[in-house]
Amino acid sequence: MKAVIINEFGTSDVLKYVECPKPTISAGEVLIRTTYTSMNFADIKNRTGNKAQANFPMILGLDVAGEVEEVFDESSAFKAGDVVIAFPKEGAYAEYVVAKEELVFKVPNDVPLEKVAAVPTVLFLSYLLTHQIAPISTNDSVLIHAASGGAGTMLIQMAKKLGAKKIIGTVGDMKKAAIVLELGAHHVLTYENFSAQVNEYTDGHGVNIIFDSIAGNITEESFNCLAPYGTLVQFGNSGGKAGNIKTSDLHSSCRNMKGFSLGTTRASKPEMLQQVAQEMFALLKDESFQVPIAKIFALEDMQKAHDLIESRQHQGKILIKI
Fold this sequence. Notes:
alpha/beta, Quinone Oxidoreductase, Chain A, domain 1, Rossmann fold, 2 domains
Protein backbone atom coordinates (compact mmCIF):
# COMPACT_ATOMS: atom_id res chain seq x y z
CA MET A 1 0.00 0.00 0.00
CA LYS A 2 1.01 3.64 -0.39
CA ALA A 3 1.65 5.67 2.76
CA VAL A 4 3.45 8.79 3.93
CA ILE A 5 6.04 8.10 6.61
CA ILE A 6 8.74 9.92 8.55
CA ASN A 7 12.10 8.43 9.51
CA GLU A 8 13.17 11.43 11.56
CA PHE A 9 11.68 14.55 13.11
CA GLY A 10 11.96 17.80 11.21
CA THR A 11 10.43 20.12 8.62
CA SER A 12 7.86 19.00 6.05
CA ASP A 13 10.56 17.52 3.80
CA VAL A 14 10.92 14.55 6.20
CA LEU A 15 7.52 13.34 4.92
CA LYS A 16 8.12 10.54 2.41
CA TYR A 17 5.55 8.97 0.05
CA VAL A 18 6.47 5.27 -0.04
CA GLU A 19 5.25 1.71 -0.49
CA CYS A 20 4.54 -0.07 2.82
CA PRO A 21 3.23 -3.50 3.83
CA LYS A 22 -0.53 -3.69 4.25
CA PRO A 23 -1.31 -3.96 7.99
CA THR A 24 -3.00 -6.98 9.58
CA ILE A 25 -5.65 -7.06 12.29
CA SER A 26 -6.10 -8.84 15.62
CA ALA A 27 -9.16 -9.55 17.75
CA GLY A 28 -11.30 -6.47 18.34
CA GLU A 29 -9.86 -4.61 15.36
CA VAL A 30 -10.95 -3.74 11.82
CA LEU A 31 -9.01 -3.00 8.66
CA ILE A 32 -10.16 0.16 6.89
CA ARG A 33 -9.57 1.26 3.32
CA THR A 34 -8.95 4.98 3.73
CA THR A 35 -10.82 7.49 1.58
CA TYR A 36 -9.90 10.66 3.46
CA THR A 37 -7.79 11.77 6.38
CA SER A 38 -7.99 15.24 7.92
CA MET A 39 -5.07 17.44 8.95
CA ASN A 40 -4.80 18.53 12.57
CA PHE A 41 -2.20 20.77 14.18
CA ALA A 42 -1.15 17.80 16.30
CA ASP A 43 0.27 16.33 13.07
CA ILE A 44 2.76 19.20 12.94
CA LYS A 45 3.74 18.78 16.57
CA ASN A 46 4.22 15.04 16.03
CA ARG A 47 6.29 15.58 12.89
CA THR A 48 8.61 18.05 14.60
CA GLY A 49 9.07 15.88 17.69
CA ASN A 50 7.28 18.25 20.05
CA LYS A 51 4.66 15.63 20.93
CA ALA A 52 5.38 12.16 19.53
CA GLN A 53 8.00 9.76 20.83
CA ALA A 54 10.55 8.56 18.30
CA ASN A 55 9.38 5.25 16.86
CA PHE A 56 10.53 5.27 13.24
CA PRO A 57 9.38 4.69 10.60
CA MET A 58 6.26 6.52 11.75
CA ILE A 59 2.93 7.23 10.04
CA LEU A 60 1.28 10.43 11.26
CA GLY A 61 -2.39 11.45 11.33
CA LEU A 62 -5.21 11.11 13.83
CA ASP A 63 -8.38 10.16 11.95
CA VAL A 64 -9.74 8.60 8.77
CA ALA A 65 -12.95 8.18 6.83
CA GLY A 66 -13.35 5.16 4.60
CA GLU A 67 -14.77 1.65 4.23
CA VAL A 68 -14.28 -1.44 6.34
CA GLU A 69 -12.12 -3.83 4.34
CA GLU A 70 -11.90 -6.71 6.81
CA VAL A 71 -13.12 -7.70 10.28
CA PHE A 72 -11.43 -10.21 12.57
CA ASP A 73 -14.40 -12.55 13.04
CA GLU A 74 -18.20 -12.78 12.84
CA SER A 75 -18.66 -11.34 16.32
CA SER A 76 -17.62 -7.92 15.04
CA ALA A 77 -20.12 -5.08 15.13
CA PHE A 78 -18.90 -4.17 11.63
CA LYS A 79 -18.83 -5.84 8.23
CA ALA A 80 -16.90 -5.31 5.03
CA GLY A 81 -18.27 -2.35 3.10
CA ASP A 82 -19.43 -0.34 6.13
CA VAL A 83 -18.69 3.37 5.71
CA VAL A 84 -16.96 4.57 8.87
CA ILE A 85 -14.85 7.19 10.53
CA ALA A 86 -12.14 5.99 12.89
CA PHE A 87 -9.11 6.84 14.98
CA PRO A 88 -6.41 4.39 13.80
CA LYS A 89 -3.81 2.70 16.00
CA GLU A 90 -0.74 3.63 13.98
CA GLY A 91 -1.42 6.83 12.04
CA ALA A 92 -3.73 7.79 9.20
CA TYR A 93 -1.56 8.77 6.22
CA ALA A 94 -2.02 5.44 4.45
CA GLU A 95 -4.28 3.56 2.04
CA TYR A 96 -5.12 1.01 4.75
CA VAL A 97 -5.26 1.48 8.52
CA VAL A 98 -6.14 -0.63 11.56
CA ALA A 99 -8.41 0.66 14.31
CA LYS A 100 -9.86 -0.78 17.48
CA GLU A 101 -13.61 -1.32 17.14
CA GLU A 102 -14.30 0.97 20.10
CA LEU A 103 -12.82 3.84 18.06
CA VAL A 104 -14.72 3.10 14.85
CA PHE A 105 -18.08 4.73 14.08
CA LYS A 106 -20.55 3.85 11.32
CA VAL A 107 -21.47 6.86 9.21
CA PRO A 108 -25.23 7.18 8.53
CA ASN A 109 -26.24 7.08 4.85
CA ASP A 110 -27.51 10.66 4.90
CA VAL A 111 -24.26 12.21 6.17
CA PRO A 112 -21.97 13.40 3.32
CA LEU A 113 -18.64 11.56 3.59
CA GLU A 114 -16.49 14.59 2.75
CA LYS A 115 -18.25 16.60 5.44
CA VAL A 116 -17.74 14.03 8.20
CA ALA A 117 -14.23 13.18 6.97
CA ALA A 118 -13.04 16.70 7.71
CA VAL A 119 -14.05 16.72 11.35
CA PRO A 120 -13.72 13.45 13.33
CA THR A 121 -11.14 14.95 15.68
CA VAL A 122 -12.38 18.54 15.92
CA LEU A 123 -16.12 17.76 16.12
CA PHE A 124 -15.80 15.11 18.83
CA LEU A 125 -13.50 17.54 20.63
CA SER A 126 -15.76 20.59 20.36
CA TYR A 127 -18.90 18.62 21.25
CA LEU A 128 -17.33 17.25 24.43
CA LEU A 129 -15.87 20.64 25.35
CA THR A 130 -19.16 22.51 25.04
CA HIS A 131 -21.51 19.85 26.42
CA GLN A 132 -19.49 18.11 29.15
CA ILE A 133 -16.24 19.88 30.03
CA ALA A 134 -17.60 23.45 30.12
CA PRO A 135 -21.31 23.30 29.22
CA ILE A 136 -22.61 26.50 27.63
CA SER A 137 -25.88 28.07 28.78
CA THR A 138 -27.97 30.87 27.28
CA ASN A 139 -26.63 33.49 29.69
CA ASP A 140 -22.98 32.79 28.89
CA SER A 141 -20.50 34.98 27.10
CA VAL A 142 -17.87 32.80 25.41
CA LEU A 143 -14.38 33.53 24.07
CA ILE A 144 -12.94 31.11 21.49
CA HIS A 145 -9.28 31.41 20.56
CA ALA A 146 -8.09 30.37 17.06
CA ALA A 147 -11.68 30.78 15.94
CA SER A 148 -11.06 30.30 12.21
CA GLY A 149 -9.28 26.96 12.59
CA GLY A 150 -10.74 23.46 12.56
CA ALA A 151 -11.73 23.28 16.23
CA GLY A 152 -12.56 26.99 16.36
CA THR A 153 -15.11 26.83 13.54
CA MET A 154 -16.84 23.92 15.28
CA LEU A 155 -16.81 25.65 18.69
CA ILE A 156 -18.33 28.84 17.25
CA GLN A 157 -21.26 26.85 15.84
CA MET A 158 -21.67 24.83 19.05
CA ALA A 159 -21.84 28.02 21.08
CA LYS A 160 -24.43 29.43 18.68
CA LYS A 161 -26.60 26.28 18.83
CA LEU A 162 -26.44 26.31 22.62
CA GLY A 163 -27.66 29.90 22.67
CA ALA A 164 -24.62 31.71 24.08
CA LYS A 165 -25.41 35.36 24.75
CA LYS A 166 -22.14 36.68 23.32
CA ILE A 167 -19.67 34.72 21.16
CA ILE A 168 -16.24 36.29 20.68
CA GLY A 169 -13.54 34.81 18.46
CA THR A 170 -9.86 35.63 18.17
CA VAL A 171 -7.87 35.28 14.94
CA GLY A 172 -4.30 35.96 13.90
CA ASP A 173 -5.36 38.13 10.98
CA MET A 174 -8.59 40.06 10.48
CA LYS A 175 -8.74 38.62 6.95
CA LYS A 176 -10.10 35.52 8.74
CA ALA A 177 -12.85 37.44 10.53
CA ALA A 178 -15.50 36.97 7.84
CA ILE A 179 -15.77 33.18 8.20
CA VAL A 180 -15.94 33.44 12.00
CA LEU A 181 -18.76 35.98 11.83
CA GLU A 182 -20.58 33.92 9.19
CA LEU A 183 -20.53 30.87 11.45
CA GLY A 184 -22.12 32.73 14.34
CA ALA A 185 -19.64 34.88 16.26
CA HIS A 186 -20.88 38.28 17.38
CA HIS A 187 -17.44 39.88 17.58
CA VAL A 188 -13.94 39.06 16.25
CA LEU A 189 -10.59 40.31 17.56
CA THR A 190 -6.90 39.82 16.89
CA TYR A 191 -4.64 38.74 19.74
CA GLU A 192 -3.16 42.19 20.31
CA ASN A 193 -4.42 43.37 23.71
CA PHE A 194 -7.43 41.08 23.28
CA SER A 195 -8.35 40.93 26.97
CA ALA A 196 -8.94 44.68 27.16
CA GLN A 197 -11.07 44.51 24.02
CA VAL A 198 -13.10 41.64 25.45
CA ASN A 199 -13.70 43.55 28.66
CA GLU A 200 -14.78 46.60 26.71
CA TYR A 201 -17.17 44.56 24.54
CA THR A 202 -18.71 42.90 27.61
CA ASP A 203 -19.06 46.21 29.51
CA GLY A 204 -16.37 45.18 31.95
CA HIS A 205 -17.97 41.86 32.91
CA GLY A 206 -15.59 39.58 31.00
CA VAL A 207 -16.59 36.19 29.63
CA ASN A 208 -17.92 33.13 31.44
CA ILE A 209 -16.10 30.50 29.36
CA ILE A 210 -12.84 30.60 27.40
CA PHE A 211 -11.76 27.82 25.04
CA ASP A 212 -7.99 28.00 24.57
CA SER A 213 -5.98 25.75 22.24
CA ILE A 214 -2.93 28.02 22.07
CA ALA A 215 -1.44 28.15 25.61
CA GLY A 216 1.53 30.32 26.56
CA ASN A 217 0.92 34.04 27.03
CA ILE A 218 -2.55 33.71 25.44
CA THR A 219 -3.63 31.58 28.39
CA GLU A 220 -2.05 34.01 30.84
CA GLU A 221 -3.73 37.07 29.30
CA SER A 222 -7.07 35.23 29.09
CA PHE A 223 -7.42 35.42 32.87
CA ASN A 224 -7.61 39.21 32.51
CA CYS A 225 -11.00 38.85 30.83
CA LEU A 226 -12.42 35.77 32.57
CA ALA A 227 -15.41 36.68 34.74
CA PRO A 228 -15.80 35.63 38.38
CA TYR A 229 -16.97 31.99 38.58
CA GLY A 230 -15.83 31.61 34.95
CA THR A 231 -14.06 28.62 33.41
CA LEU A 232 -11.01 28.54 31.15
CA VAL A 233 -10.55 25.27 29.26
CA GLN A 234 -7.02 24.63 28.01
CA PHE A 235 -7.12 21.94 25.32
CA GLY A 236 -4.07 22.48 23.14
CA ASN A 237 -0.62 23.98 22.80
CA SER A 238 -0.40 25.23 19.23
CA GLY A 239 1.67 28.20 20.40
CA GLY A 240 4.38 25.82 21.57
CA LYS A 241 4.90 27.37 25.01
CA ALA A 242 3.41 26.66 28.42
CA GLY A 243 1.54 29.36 30.31
CA ASN A 244 2.01 30.15 33.99
CA ILE A 245 -1.04 30.48 36.24
CA LYS A 246 -1.07 31.88 39.77
CA THR A 247 -3.31 30.13 42.27
CA SER A 248 -4.33 33.60 43.44
CA ASP A 249 -5.94 34.10 40.02
CA LEU A 250 -8.35 31.30 40.88
CA HIS A 251 -9.50 30.95 44.47
CA SER A 252 -10.41 34.52 45.42
CA SER A 253 -12.36 35.11 42.18
CA CYS A 254 -13.98 31.65 42.24
CA ARG A 255 -12.70 31.05 38.72
CA ASN A 256 -11.48 27.68 37.54
CA MET A 257 -9.29 26.15 34.87
CA LYS A 258 -9.77 22.76 33.24
CA GLY A 259 -7.59 20.75 30.93
CA PHE A 260 -8.83 18.39 28.24
CA SER A 261 -7.18 16.14 25.66
CA LEU A 262 -9.09 14.16 23.07
CA GLY A 263 -6.03 11.94 22.62
CA THR A 264 -6.00 11.01 26.29
CA THR A 265 -9.76 10.45 26.19
CA ARG A 266 -9.50 8.17 23.14
CA ALA A 267 -6.92 6.07 24.96
CA SER A 268 -8.42 6.07 28.46
CA LYS A 269 -12.16 6.67 28.06
CA PRO A 270 -13.22 5.80 24.50
CA GLU A 271 -16.77 5.28 25.73
CA MET A 272 -17.07 9.07 26.00
CA LEU A 273 -16.84 9.25 22.20
CA GLN A 274 -19.29 6.41 21.68
CA GLN A 275 -21.81 8.17 23.91
CA VAL A 276 -21.90 11.32 21.78
CA ALA A 277 -21.35 9.90 18.28
CA GLN A 278 -25.01 9.93 17.26
CA GLU A 279 -25.44 13.54 18.41
CA MET A 280 -22.40 14.43 16.34
CA PHE A 281 -23.84 12.76 13.23
CA ALA A 282 -27.14 14.54 13.80
CA LEU A 283 -25.31 17.85 13.64
CA LEU A 284 -23.66 16.87 10.36
CA LYS A 285 -27.05 15.97 8.83
CA ASP A 286 -28.16 19.56 9.46
CA GLU A 287 -27.38 21.55 6.33
CA SER A 288 -27.04 24.71 8.40
CA PHE A 289 -24.11 23.19 10.29
CA GLN A 290 -21.12 24.11 8.16
CA VAL A 291 -17.79 22.34 7.79
CA PRO A 292 -15.48 24.84 6.08
CA ILE A 293 -12.84 23.03 4.01
CA ALA A 294 -9.78 25.10 3.17
CA LYS A 295 -8.26 22.73 0.60
CA ILE A 296 -8.09 19.06 -0.41
CA PHE A 297 -4.68 17.52 -1.21
CA ALA A 298 -3.66 14.15 -2.61
CA LEU A 299 -1.69 11.83 -0.32
CA GLU A 300 1.48 12.34 -2.36
CA ASP A 301 1.20 16.11 -1.76
CA MET A 302 1.36 15.78 2.03
CA GLN A 303 4.33 18.15 2.27
CA LYS A 304 2.22 20.93 0.74
CA ALA A 305 -0.60 20.21 3.19
CA HIS A 306 1.80 20.49 6.13
CA ASP A 307 3.25 23.72 4.77
CA LEU A 308 -0.23 25.22 4.48
CA ILE A 309 -1.33 24.34 8.00
CA GLU A 310 1.98 25.61 9.41
CA SER A 311 1.57 28.90 7.55
CA ARG A 312 -1.66 29.53 9.50
CA GLN A 313 -3.08 31.11 6.36
CA HIS A 314 -5.90 28.61 5.95
CA GLN A 315 -9.47 28.89 7.20
CA GLY A 316 -11.26 25.68 8.14
CA LYS A 317 -10.04 22.13 7.65
CA ILE A 318 -7.45 20.64 5.31
CA LEU A 319 -8.40 17.24 3.86
CA ILE A 320 -6.25 14.54 2.27
CA LYS A 321 -7.96 12.37 -0.37
CA ILE A 322 -6.46 8.90 -0.65
